[in-house]
Amino acid sequence: MPGLLLGDVFPNFEADTTIGRIKFHDFLGSSWGVLFSHPKDFTPVCTTELAGAAKDVMAVSSSTAKTLPFPIISDHDRALSIELGMLDPDERGQRWAAPLCSLRLRRNFDELLRAIDSLQLTAQKKVATPVDWK
């Protein structure tokens, strides 16, 4: 299963969310987006990552809402995770547990934001963003 490659158009999935049913491309419109994913149910690390993202979004927003400033997607049967190539179809009904030697992403929200800033800048201007660019 090859999954998504850099430069691919992200699938225009439909899903139920905390703000109702969305069609992903319609929801984003002309905005950039970040899709968080975590295959394991009810982990506290995801809570801290979502809170970090919410603080950043709310810091640049005029909203004074007390709820998350972005929707949470429901994927209770993991169909979307499989469609996006994030989960092996054979694992659909299983609780997820990573093998000890599995590849994992380090969580660093500041680095994620730096990468997004770089992507947005280089999409508009012909510049390079070298190591440790800010």
From TrEMBL:
It comes from the Eukaryota. This is Uncharacterized protein. It comes from Chaenocephalus aceratus.
